[in-house]
Input
Amino acid sequence: MNNANDSQALAQAIVQAHAQRFGSASETQAASFSSEDPVYRAAKAASLQLGFIDIDAEVLGRAWQAQTQRTGRFDAAEWPASPQDFGMKRFPLATRPDAFASCPTYLGLYAVLPDAEWVGRCARAGVPTVQLRFKSTDREAVEREVRASVDAVRGTDSLLFINDHWRIAIAAGAYGVHLGQEDMDALSAEELHELRSSGVRLGVSTHGYAEMLRADAVSPSYIAMGAVFPTTLKKMATAPQGVARLDAYARLTRGYPQVAIGGIDETRLAEVLATGVGSVAVVRAIVTANDPEGTAARWQAAISKKN
Output
C-alpha cells in the first residue's frame, strides 16, 4: 500500500462497508492531507464521502491509521472505536490526575430548564439531573436565578448543573457546570485550574470527533453529544449527527458518563437509548408538555429500564 491507487481502493472499501450505516455526502469536499500514509489518506477521503466534516475526517484518518498499525492489518469493516487509536487519555477517568470530580455514570433524564421555578418543579418531580440554562446579560439576575436554583434542588435527589456561568455556580454551591465547546476552549490554563480545583463537576458539549478529543483533553465529568436530530432551539454550527453517528461516538467515549441531546422526542427515545448512552437531555419535551410531571416520569422510566 504505497500509492494513490492503493488509497483509492481502500477508500472505496470503507465507503462500501459503511455507506448504508452513515449515508453519503451530497457534495464531497476536496480532501487535504497531512500525511502520505495510504490508510490515513484512504480513511480521510472515505470519511468525507460519508458526510463527515473535514476536521472529523482528519481525526478518523489518523485513528484508522493507528488502528491498522496496532492490529497489524487493515479492515475496512472495522470502524475505529478504541480510545488509544484516537490518542485519548487513559481510562478509567479516576486514574487521570487532571480528572474533574466524578458524577454518576447514568445521569438519567436530564432536563435543561429556563429558570429556577422550572428547576424546582422538575426536581420535586424526581428528575435526576437538571440544568439551569438562564440567558441574561444582567449579572445580578443570573446570580439570583442560580442561587434560587441551588435552593430549589435542596432536599431532593436532583443533581444541578449550571450552564455557562461557572464562577457564579461555584460561589452558589451548585453540583456542576456545563460548558459549550467554545466556552471551554476560551478558558485560560489558570481558569481551567480554578474550575477543576473548585471540585465542581464539568459537562462539555461536543458535535463530532474533533470536539470529543478536545473535551477529552481536559478530562470532564461527562460528555454531551449532539445535536442528534434537527432542533429549532438554537442555530447549530454542525448538521444533525443522527443515531448512527451517535452510536459510533458512544462506543468511543464509553469511559465517560454520556448525554445525548438535540431534537429527541418520545418517538425517537428508544433508538437513542439503544446506543448505550446513559442519559438523554430534553429542552422542550417537558416544559411544553400538558403534564410535565407525567411526561418526566415516562421518560425516566424508559431510561431507567435501559440502564
Remarks:
- DSSP finds 13 helices and eight strands in the chain.
- The chain has two domains: 4-86, 93-306.
- The chain has a mean pLDDT of 94.
- Residues 4-86 form one domain.
